[in-house]
Amino acid sequence: MKFAFVAAKTPEARTARVGLAKRYGHTAPHKADVIIALGGDGFMLETLHRYIGEEAPIYGLNRGTVGFLMNEYHIPGLPERIARADRVTLHPLRMLAETVKGKSVEALAINEVSMLRESRQACKISISIDGRARMKEMTGDGVMVCTSAGSTAYNLSAHGPIIPLGSNLLGLTPINAFRPRHWRGALLPSKCEVTFEVLDAVKRPVSAVADFTEVRDVKRVYVAEERGVSLHLLFDPEHNLEERILNEQFWS
């Protein structure tokens, strides 16, 4: 089994990379059977984006802080751990954003696509699902669509629902909604296409953010799951991602 070791820029991650490469050998990522990511959840997100299109699955070892998407860091027995690891396949979101100046930008999001106000004024956004208007006007700091893997990230901080893997659902979550005051969001079938229309986009400017890609001054944003792109992660059976998502719902 050929491994490619990639690491975050922290001393802990870089030191771990040197030790693991020396022990197990290092292969270029495009030739590897498995890509080993050393860092935290942010670095795992970067690694997933960097190697979209590669067949090799990604196995994370936590050399960061939270490590929700990472396995526990141990040097011995790595080949055996990977051989018995569970594989999880994720599909990212594809965002198509149109700006007030007529520019179009596409990007993929593994966690979420967020609409965020740019100024001191609350933004006003209308929301359509599969071409049908579901909310004519939402006023607040913004709104997001998240995947199941991303439901424990920004979505959870915004009091959105935790979504189990394999549920074929997306989360639609408001960010500090002022109107409608009691709206807490929705769960959508993953096949849905969500359209956000920014109302009064010049006076109340809005940015659209797909993970690392930010598009400022948008007027319209389309979001849908990209089934043509598959991302493969490996998790130790005793600490897999689906179990972590379930555990998060009972954490106190």
Topology:
Elements: E1 3-7, H1 11-24, E2 34-39, H2 41-50, E3 58-62, H3 78-83, E4 86-90, E5 93-99, E6 104-109, E7 112-117, E8 123-129, E9 132-146, H4 154-157, E10 169-179, E11 186-189, E12 193-199, E13 206-210, E14 213-215, E15 218-225, E16 231-235, H5 241-248
Parallel strand pairs: 1-2, 2-3, 3-16
Antiparallel strand pairs: 4-16, 5-6, 5-15, 7-9, 7-13, 8-9, 8-12, 9-10, 10-11, 12-15, 13-14
Percent helix among the residues? 10-25%
Summarize the main sheet.
Answer: 11 strands, antiparallel
Give the quaternary arrangement of the chains. single chain
H and E string: EHEHEHEEEEEEHEEEEEEEH
Can you identify the CATH superfamily of the largest domain? Probable inorganic polyphosphate/atp-NAD kinase, domain 2
Indicate the radius of gyration in whole angstroms. Answer: 19 Å
Unreliable residue runs: none
Any idea what the CATH architecture of the largest domain is? Sandwich
Distance between the termini: 40 Å
